[in-house]
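Table S2 (continued). Query chain:
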Amino acid sequence: MTHKSLISEPFTSGARQTNSERINMKLSVKSLGALVAIGVIFGCGGAGGTGGLATVAGVVLDTNGEIVRNARVFTTAKTTFTNSSGAFVLESVDEGIVRLNAQLTIGGVNYVGENHVETFANERTKSLIIVIGRQNQAATMEGLVTDRFGAPLEKARVHANAGYLGSSFTLTDQSGRYSMGGLFPGSTYDVQASGRTYISDTSALNFSAGQRITHNFVLDDAGSPTLPAPNNLSAVVWTAPRVNTSSNMPLRANGVKDSIRKLLDTKRGERHQGKGKRPKNSAGNNPIEVDLFWDTYRNDNLLGFGIYRGTSQTGNTTGIEFFADPLANFFADSDRILNENTNYYYEVTALNTNYPDFNNSESDFSNRYGVRPIGDMTLRNINTGPLRFNWNSCRDAEKYTVFLFSNYPDLGVSALWPFDAGSTAAATTTGTSLVYTGPGLVSGRKYYYVVLALANADDSRSISAVGSFNAP
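Corresponding output:
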């Protein structure tokens, strides 16, 4: 039986238009400037690529959705490590479909994970998430993707998502077969096979430790339904110390977003979890990153999301990326053009599996949400007797919160102070110093801390490097 190859057209990126006007604008996937397309080119090269070199930026999470520091991230030819925000940057990666693995050993226990990413020469791939868990718990899903007549589909996209904001992803081979590892027990995964001009096939699966599941997908012919717009778009913007994660040594010099998320992001609930990626455009040449969140969106006609950005509350926005993950509810904009003291406004659309061939293949816009990056957060030496934390004023900050840790904040380490949302106020001030009032410290023991600057209803955030001291 012959197979079918799923070939798609590039994302339509352009100035904010009406739906009918946007559908008629078909810009190249290699658009100049800030326009980037990373999603729907199912036929864009294999693992060997075409010789072009790309950059992959991402974040490593554990099975609870917490960031993982000091994890080794690697391809067959390149290696890097995650920094203390769980972020990594892997440069000089082949163009095409690339497999990335993550590995970390703590206390003799080996943790592993994997994901695939589609890369383009001279471009930086965003929003890649790798989930790791105990190696002896990792499960595998494999099977066949066919059309409704039983013909195998080559380069169909297979996703699996257990609520970690991004999905594990792979493609089918020439025989329509796929294999996906790095799946773990304890969560229900939404699994989905999709392809342009086909209705997706979606299921919910649970895995046992070490299990190998065979799960086949059948894709029916797509109609062209009008999809509803994504709901409840929100965003936060981070300024964080620049870290070169291309080193072959573990890095410990950035933020601790997992503890901060637990304390600050209750208004976003489970939608607001780990973050990553590192552009370089604060006044101090430090990274600025905007994290977008929207309600979980499930529709078998969904191909992915269009991400739009502008600098005006009411003016035009421009399509900056097609995000080819129909199970996601998170996107990180790590564009190097982002600058502090500038307003950025975002909208998101849903794209159906016929996009861009029909006038109703893109939804209306979501609500528009704006953020404004603030300045760099830097530390000064602490005082003792009593213990006092000191820092420099951060541009446009309205308040500051100190986070203290009894161990370096590696996998599973939570803040000692503040330890819950009710105690945040005790560790917060509008000034540039704060006397410690938390639990008693062990004299001579080493402790670690960061200071977080906040503004604009906590949507604007700037985090210091990790500081340390020996308790008096």
